[in-house]
Amino acid sequence: MADLLVTQGVIHDHRVEAAFRSVARHVFVPNVSLEVAYTDDVVLMKTNESGVAISTVSQPTVVALMLEQAGIEPGHRVLEIGSGGYNAALLKELVGPDGEVTTIDIDADVTDRARRRLVAAGYPEVQVVQTDGEFGWPESAPYDRVVVTVTAWDIAPAWLEQLAEGGRIVVPLRMRSQTRSIAFDLVDGVLRSRSMAVCGFVSMQGAGANYERFLPVHGDKVSLSFDEDQLDEPHPLNGVLKEPAVVAWSGVLVNIEEPLSDLDLWLASTLPGYCVLRAERSALKKKLVSPAPRWGASAMVEDGTIAYVTARPAPEPDFVELGAVGHGLSAAEFTGRLAEQTWQWHEKHRYGPDPVLTIHPAEAAPDQLPEGFHIRRRHSIITITWPVD
Ligand SMILES: C[S@@+](CC[C@H](N)C(=O)[O-])C[C@H]1O[C@@H](n2cnc3c(N)ncnc32)[C@H](O)[C@@H]1O
Where in the cell is it found (predicted)? Predict the structure, then answer.
């Protein structure tokens, strides 16, 4: 597994590689075969009453990505939020005998298992605590690194309070229906992103739990997802898909394999009424909607009009042209804006640096915030800015 992660270019750092070669993953996933334990895949450990995954041992690719983002040094004190044991053991390898690893989980089953398995794997020094990660673990603070391994919606104040100056938080942050593992450095009291990558994690439970809200557009066959901070806007959309479709093309060609997550975040940063359109297979089959990508397309909604990203085949094989479909009174205007912003992304940001995220407390005055697109969370304001080369 380690060989594969190195040859695939997932692991670049030789210390992370050495940690992967040292820790026996199968000890942490005794419920699966050796072969599965050393496959680059997530291992499901627990589901809730509805069958939804609530605890896993994470996919090695994602674990490696986050460890590299975290830049763990020998002697560091590290807090891991969301336990499984495996990542905590890797962290212990990286901090060495002079460092300290504390891993916390809200679920007693998970901490009991992690504790036992860490001892069995030869890492009895890792401290395992059952508590809600929203409050961190002040007893072992300050931490040089906080590594969150469960989807978060916000930066909990406790993580910041318990972080040493110059420290780093790596967290899978969910914004506008996408989760990105983001490494934030704490500089002069402000968290600023230094790297990011799209990923997936189970949802946070407890005090920091939050969910997307779905607005039906055509029964529950087509719906729109919004974050909590977008809820005050009224979106009367019943029957809007029966209005004639208006289409605008952007002139932007993409390979069908190219991820569009940065385009989605750019559209979220620049369009009012941004949301994500999701359609069930039956709605796609009946051509009620034609989103791109098919599992969820960027959309904008205002005053009874909807527009969303679509695609049509391009002359070159395996390429499509991005465009927008709209329904409702302002469909021509909205599709034009969507297509124009898609072009702007292509021109200015497609091959440029990642967006930069900064985190300020929710109480910050507007003049204390950097210019950019602001997302309000319960505890903080996330500012997204788009640097150009
Ligand atoms: C993806 S798993 C962690 C994987 C683990 N780091 C590993 O080594 O593979 C996510 C864990 O987060 C836990 N969790 C969910 N909400 C939490 C919260 N508020 N505080 C602490 N842990 C939480 C879940 O119980 C679950 O065990």
Answer: Cytoplasm
Q: Scanning the structure block, which residue is given the tokens 């210390």?
A: 15
Q: Using one digit for the tens of pLDDT, what is the confidence trace for 185-204?
A: 999 889 999 999 999 999 99
Residue 387 in domain? no
What percent of the chain has a predicted confidence (pLDDT) above 90? 92
Q: State the distance from the centre of ligand 1 to the C-alpha of 148, rounded, in angstroms.
A: 8
Supply the CATH number for residue 159's domain: 3.40.50.150
Total domain count for the chain? 2
Say whether both 39 and 166 belong to one domain: yes
Q: Is 105 in the pocket of ligand 1 (CB under 6 A)?
A: yes
Q: How confident is the model at residue 238 (pLDDT cuts 50, 70, 90)?
A: confident
Ligand 1 proximity of 154 Cβ (cutoff 6 Å): no
Is 140 close to ligand 1, i.e. is its CB under 6 Å away? no
The answer, yes or no, to whether residue 222 has pLDDT greater than 70, is: yes
Model confidence over 12-66: pLDDT tens digits?
Answer: 999 999 999 999 999 999 999 999 999 999 999 999 999 999 999 999 999 999 9
Backbone angles phi, psi at 15, to 5 degrees: -70, -35
Of 22, 55, 58, 225, which residue is the catalytic one? 58
Residue partners of 187: CB distance under 8 A and separation at least 6: 166
Residues 6+ apart with CB under 8 A from 338: 248, 250, 267, 271, 298, 300, 307, 308, 309, 324, 326
Tell whether 142 and 280 lie within a shared domain: no
